[in-house]
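Quiz preparation item.
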């Protein structure tokens, strides 16, 4: 990516003094270490999608486990179901990581997005002082003006036979007039004690390294690693009446009562049936 030209006028999109660029040298110094998970940290000014870029690099054997790709701006960021994710330059954290959990059965890899949610919420609580709740399966929620708002999301994609690329997008300094939809939020709007993206990113990645290490050491077992319990404790979906919009234009309404050993959301329906949901959109209908 081409670095910013020093001759650009002050009115350029890179001149927002409230949104300084990430310090890649400090990030590498704080994250890349002998024996640690993170092998490489790269920051680009602008790209379509960090997930697409890192999946392509992994396919071409140009990335190894622990590669971290961060973008100051994404022009084609994606959520689940190929939904677009856009935000002003340097207003958030937009990054992807490559993981290759060879010791873990592939059947348990579905826990990786949930693991990432727990890690992000833990890291943000420490670094930003913001309570972040998890909406199953991959949304990060904050409270703004007493209302639940989406401030981030997670997207996992297979990278070849032995890897998974996990992308994370977090709105950090988005102002009210910059929100893409009224139901969106940001750490700043949620009252974060810090919106300095450097320590926020370090905190999230260190938390992800810690949780991934526990999960991998347990062979991906969500119970033994403590992941299943931690996810349930931080999940805003549990205890709620929800509507699950499923593939094939089918919908199920019920109370979300558990996240099972496969990471599926278990709904107790009005007919007295417990139905596990492995994929679909979840709509929170009312609080517990």
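Solution:
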């Amino acid at each position: 990516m081409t670095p910013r030209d020093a001759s650009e006028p002050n009115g350029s999109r890179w001149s927002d003094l409230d949104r300084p660029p990430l310090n890649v040298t400090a990030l590498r110094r704080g994250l890349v270490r002998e024996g640690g998970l993170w092998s490489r940290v790269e920051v680009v000014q602008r790209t379509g999608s960090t997930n697409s870029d890192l999946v392509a690099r992994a396919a071409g054997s140009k990335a190894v486990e622990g590669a971290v790709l961060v973008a100051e701006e994404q022009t084609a960021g994606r959520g689940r179901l190929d939904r677009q994710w856009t935000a002003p330059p340097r207003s958030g954290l937009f990054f992807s990581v490559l993981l290759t959990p060879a010791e873990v059965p592939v059947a348990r890899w579905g826990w990786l997005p949930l693991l990432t949610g727990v890690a992000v919420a833990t890291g943000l609580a420490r670094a930003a002082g913001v309570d972040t709740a998890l909406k199953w399966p991959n949304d990060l929620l904050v409270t703004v003006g007493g209302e639940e708002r989406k401030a981030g999301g997670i997207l996992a994609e297979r990278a070849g036979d032995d890897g998974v690329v996990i992308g994370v997008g977090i709105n950090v300094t988005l102002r009210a007039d910059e929100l893409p939809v009224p139901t969106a939020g940001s750490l700043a709007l949620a009252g974060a004690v810090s919106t300095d993206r450097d320590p926020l990113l370090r905190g999230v990645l260190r938390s992800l390294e810690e949780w991934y290490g526990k999960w991998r050491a347990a062979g991906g077992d969500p119970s033994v690693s403590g992941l299943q319990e931690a996810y349930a404790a931080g999940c805003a979906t549990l205890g709620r009446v929800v509507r699950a919009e499923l593939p094939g234009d089918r919908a199920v309404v019920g109370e979300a009562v558990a996240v099972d050993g496969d990471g599926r959301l278990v709904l107790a329906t009005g007919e007295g049936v417990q139905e596990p949901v492995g994929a679909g959109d979840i709509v929170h209908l009312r609080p517990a």
